[in-house]
Amino acid sequence: MQYDYLIVGAGTAGCVLAARLSEDEDATVCLIEAGGEADEPAISEPAMWPMLEGSDIDWAFKTVPQRHTANRIHDWARGFVVGGSSCINAMAHVRGHPSDFDGWAAAGCEGWGYADLMPYFIASETSPFAPSPYHGDQGPIRQMVPSDPHPLTRCFMAAAEEQGHVPTREHNGARMTGPTLNTLVIVDGKRQSVADAYLTPALSRANLTVRTGCLVDRLAFTGTRCSGLHLIVDGKPVHIEAREGVVLCAGVINSPAILMRSGIGSADELAKLGISTRVDLPGVGQNLQDHLLSGGNVYLSKDEVPFTQTQHSESLLYSSRNGDDKLAPEMVAACVVVPIATDAFDPPPFGEAYTLMFGFTHPRSRGAIRLRSADPTVAPDIDPNYLAEEYDREIYIEAMERTRAIGHSQAFADWRKEEFLPGVELNTRAEKLDFLQKAAFTHHHPVGTCRMGSDDEAVVDPALVVRGTEGLHVIDGSIIPQATTGPHNAAIVAMAERKSDLIRAQAPRTPFDPRTLS
């Protein structure tokens, strides 16, 4: 079997690439997915997303024990389905702060600044805030803002304002800091995955093939050119060829794992597994970073908490230490209308409590993905190295203290019966950190393991081609050099849109002129 383009992974980036590359009727495109079709009914129900973790459509990865979170093992949900993690996430659409992307460009990722990506953000969406210089109204990603927010959502925003946080209109416009209602990817009460938005409308094209249940063993090469894939399908080896190129969209865990199994990675580490080195790239699998959250601020409610009409959390507060809106906010908080806690605690029943979650946006701790075996059925070791850096511990403590102040505000007086977690005074830094180490869990935003850059440690260059190869591209969260503020799904869509232009040798869209913003 032979196609012009092979795309590995039908997640967020893969669906965008498949739709855009197949617009060329003369190009044959094969989208390859390890999981199955998105036929689980719970996918479309916004409130059901927590139930999808650990289900048949989740890779159900686990980290190694984390020294700085009480030696706990963390569950890492990743979508094992057409649509990828856009089928199991919490549906928030947050682009990130402009300085996030400008920081990438300044560090050597030319063409990936905020102005460069803005045309793709706009083109990808149908926004409730359009018409606006910041937003589009003709794109595949259809967004909404809750029209009848949960009463606790209203209390949360009022409490944040009571604590001095100035409300903002939205998190994707002129000012990101401040409380506001979330922009959600929900259409007519149903989740819209990226597969729904991009892939489904393209499925009738004769030049597009989608193959599910295909596990990638390794890449095939002819010299330095990536010429195809070695797959495992129904337990049997299958070879498939690419005339033009192979695009890895397999995600922050599987993209580096595929590269390493194919001999692209640290020569010393590959030799330990008996893998011959094709390209010695020590950066493959490194630079792993993830947003941490905490469900550590839980309150018992005076009255029964109504069920959500959306996805349990309808508002976010992004905040900065110094209040400078021009810099990316360092902290995030949210009101969740159900009790949330780690397995270190015993939370109250649903309907009797609510949670103020909190976290920090730009972790400095770095971890790694490491192969345990050349066998593609053996999951790699995942070590995010949570809270290894002192900055992360300090900002986490500050986020908790700010969020507890919101929780104890007068705005919550009609709902707040008593604080359940932490539930005690945490007087010393050691007490605060001990609690947080037990209360920490992933925000499901891992990035960085095939880092983009122009330096010798980068895995892909600014064109997103793997260094030392030809015809081998990567576009997914693994290429992100530094985590953005908030979820990464919106950024990955825009980045995949731009990468599709690069692959098709089209001129990238004209960078946005920030002077046009009012």
From TrEMBL:
Keyword line: FAD, Flavoprotein
Binding residue positions for FAD: V81, V216, G477
Key word Nucleotidyltransferase present: no
The Glucose-methanol-choline oxidoreductase N-terminal domain, residue ranges: 3-292
The protein's required cofactors: FAD
All copies of domain Glucose-methanol-choline oxidoreductase C-terminal, residue ranges: 363-496
Gene3D superfamilies found in the cross-reference section: FAD/NAD(P)-binding domain, Glucose Oxidase, domain 3
Keyword check for RNA-binding: no
GO MF annotation list: flavin adenine dinucleotide binding; oxidoreductase activity, acting on CH-OH group of donors
Family note: Belongs to the GMC oxidoreductase family.
Protein name: GMC family oxidoreductase N-terminal domain-containing protein
Source organism: Hoeflea prorocentri
